[in-house]
Amino acid sequence: MKAKKILVPAALCALLFLAGYGVGTLIARQMKKQKQDESAYIGRSEIKLTDGRMTPEALLSLGRLSDPQVSPDGTKILYGVSYNSIADNRSCRNLFICDIDGGNVHQLTRFAKSVSNARWSADGRSIYFLQGGQIWKAAIKGAVLGKRDRLSDIPAGIGEFKISPDESRILFLSTVPGSVKTPDKSDPLLGQAEAYATETLMYRHWDHWVTETPRTYVAPFGKGIITPDVARDILGEEPYELPTEPFGGLEQLDWNPDSRHIAYSCRKKAGIDYAFSTDAEIYLYDVETDSTVCIPMEGGYDTDPVWSHDGRKLAWISMARDGYEADQQRLMVAEVRTDGATMEARDIRWVSESLDADAAGIFWTPDDREIIFNALVDGLQALFRADVGSCRISRITDGDWWFDFNSPFAYRKNGGIEEFFASYCSLNFPNELVKVTVDASGAASYAQLTDENLPILRQMAEPVCEKRYVKTVDGKDMLTWVLYPPEFDASKQYPAIEICLGGPQGTLSQGWSYRWNYRLMAAQGFIVVMPNRRGTTAFGQEWKEEISGDYIGLNMQDYLSAAREIKAEPYVSKLAACGASYGGYSVYYLAGIHGDLYDCFIAHAGIFDERYMYYTTEEMWFPEWDNGGLGRGFLSGSPWSEFPEAKRHYANSPDVNVRNWHTPILCIHGGMDFRIPYDQGMAAFNCAQYMGVPSKLVVFPTECHWILQPQNALYWHRTYFDWLDRWMK
Predict the structure, then answer these.
(1) Is 725 an annotated catalytic residue?
(2) Distance (Å, rounded) from C-alpha 263 to C-alpha 293?
(3) Annotated active-site residue in 581, 586, 636, 638
(4) Which of the listed CATH numbers 3.40.630.30, 3.30.230.10, 3.40.50.2000, 3.40.50.1820 matches domain 461-609+653-728?
């Protein structure tokens, strides 16, 4: 049920930081289904707030900064910003440039059609970018972009590209027909027929029927227009996807500095094997010989390979266990020999073994002695360094900095002073560029480089964030963030919202979200309570794994512990439980067991009937493991499994306790949600109606697990707050 890219454990700010496939591709897929007028330029919003209160309209007006790229000479940063037009119901992304210290910000492009995947040329005199599914090049001088020249003509379109270091070759993503077949439109009697036909599993994924499969191609670069005739499919005749759906992009492939060898991650499985397995391997591909070698590992997910600057080492993220998508993300490094046609990996080491956390976002320092990465620890996404030789891990960002940091995109060292250029966010602001400085004594400091959203944010009164520890029923301390409304007064009373986290393996950190925005909730006068219950990922592997096969166990007691503590405060009047995905499951389950603890419920894209969910979801490895199978064999997590954990799981599905429902509940779902199909929300609403419980159903027919289109997002927020106001104020 996860809504996150498998190997990015950050909050949504980190997802938005990635270019290419990811979230941008989800939005693009939805927009392809609708005719969009892209003739009008969309710029920065000039919204005015008269009372200092953040609104849904203000949230949707904020610019979304992403994909920073440092110039070859290290003096400039190129990045993109997306702006919404609620009236036009679309967004548009354009390019900006600033000095390395954040000064002299200039907008490079003012196109009506989005620009993405912008990259500097090796000499720093031009930039390459994607627009309209094709690659373009334009000279850049200062902050002025020259005439565009089109470099590709790929009829199926290009999703992302990566140019080799010597600029002689290019990797790009496109699509081929998928396993799902549609009527032959050349037949005059079938011109208006609409159907999807399949004879194997994984026929739909996340938000789409698998009528197309992503593939990666290599082609000559700088030798004329890139066309299908000059491009070679890296997988040849193999029937697999590259990169991995639904969120994978070219972070799953990397050029060796020799511009000849490519490391890539691929799950070489199809049909039922694909649906039940997470076993992706790292492969080495020789462009000149068209040969491939696999780096064998245990059987779990291996992805995001990154070559060292000297091309002799390869780092990647690895999971050990097949079928367990929340397994520990290990930072691995191998010595790699690429002499001529020889490709061999040896001396594979788990570099991050001493850190009980999930590593992500690999960045080599220029001397190849260290790798910088990010990891969620104690409720924050922090930067770490790993000494490749000794495997010693040390933290860079301070634990008192209440921000989520993404891995660096640039680094420089002057004497004993190091500077890491990255992006960061918090519960109070979305992604901005930041510089983290570590002096010769090891002391760290940070300086924000951009203020993309300052004109809007400075109009808003800020909430106050508290870090609280709640005692669990087994005597442990659970980190719980609490966000208080602006101008909070403890002598007054306020309604509170307990956030039930999705995933279920995720973390309530300092991450910014444009969908579940806790600052916006606080601005409406609610106290927002964010417990990091069992199953969250920032408190070690043992805490994370306590949820698998035990959805109704300690993690539900964790919610109740936090709820009882906050509701006992004299300044709390009423309490709601709200959540999405597994958080929606939690809401449906709590509705049947809470007594009179909660006064209102909201479930978005939640699981109501676990048996039916098993029969209708797409990524089968997830229920196989988490529903009680725990990797003990094929169908061990099925509704007919004999394992006691699976029997207990299905016997306690949220629908079992629906006879106890009596609290107002709002059920929201996307009609194109293929992870948790929308009839789960319908079933929950129908049962609430049968029981005479005040209830409301909202279905967005063109949305998936996430509500992404601007006007739909606005309606979602208005509906959410209308329901809370109705029952909580």
Answers:
(1) no
(2) 10
(3) 581
(4) 3.40.50.1820
